Amino acid sequence: MKCCVVTLGCQMNQSDSERIRSVIEAAGFEMTDNEEEASLIGVVACSVRQKAIDKVYSKIQKWNKWKSQRPLITFVSGCILPADEVKFLGLFDLLFRMSELPELPTMLAQCGITTEFSVRNQTVELHREDERTDFWQVDPTYTSSFEAFVPVQNGCDKFCSFCAVPYTRGREVSRASTEILQEVEKLIANDVKAITLLGQNVNSYGQDKPDDEISFAQLLRKVGELGEASGKEFWVYFTSPHPRDMTRDVIEAIADYDCLAKQIHLPVQSGDEKLLRRMNRNHSIEAYLTIVDDIRELLPTATIFTDIIVGFTGESEEQFENTSDLMKKVKFNMVYVARYSPRVGARASRWKDDITLEQKSERLARLSDVLKETSSAHNQTMIGKTYRVLVERADKRMEGALASRTEGKLLVRIIDASEDLIGTFQNVKITSAVSLSLTGELV
Fold it and tell me: In the chain, where are the structural domains located?
């Protein structure tokens, strides 16, 4: 029997999907990327954005039509709003939360999976009985041999007015640091080259267990110590931090260890103070710029990425310009700009969405122009210099080239290189640069 799992949304969902794969494979299924040959199809959904939810409905409508032609069981899990859960219950055969993942084999058996599966199911013992409700106890089936995601925290206590995450994933819960470090140590032993620590507010790690857990800065230092002891080359990233919890000791930790990558993704969402208050971000522009100054001081080679929302409820032209001005001041290397769309459950969904789609699109285009200008200026300074890169895949846009990334996650296309280099570190001399990518040759 074969199973296909479709993953939507962020890296946290991808990490969840890897654990779902482990349980399904242990239950006797062979994984496939081909939906048409699978007898079990699932989707790891994302309620944070309407576009992702629309994809779920499109998928399940197609899958349910297939049921008239062949036996098929469908399931859904992931980051789902309560309102979407209610709708999905009538469309999917199974709906489970990630905390219920260890019970998935039993759920499938109750759906009438074959006797062979039921026999296999008796041997699926993931961990001790008292831990079976904790999906972090499930060892993931990594989808890459050289990149891996390691969850350190789940949920969110920030309640930004535009965001549904606290309603889809619940309150913040920190994973045991001993488990995190064990997983990282295994990945290092297996020569994984890039490790990303995941959490909705990763730098608030440990705050929910002040008497039992270390801080995020301390966790980074322990990961750094593992790297030093191993003598191996790899880069460790984390996403996403919240400016409210970003402290100088986190940046100091990154500066002290070679394996902690010199790249910071620090979502700002808006460059206007009033709008930040409406978003319930609980940080000021001044505080944000202080963090940027600390990064520039302690990590002079670091790249800085951010997230910005355009067209949030009530955003005036002046407020938008404040965001544009902030982008010009910080000179981000990458900005992920999203047009605001209300999400049911988030507080702002009760407010009038009074910025037209045309206005949102126009503002997004203007910020894209700012990014191209600042990114291009930085990338031009890299021409003629040699950088260490991790080769990721064959490039999709340049035939015969490989796509790689610097430690700062800047895209570098390597010309005339063999695909045997995928998953390895290489030295590349930059020969040309545009706004969001570079081109180079192997040294």
Answer: 2-131, 140-379, 386-442
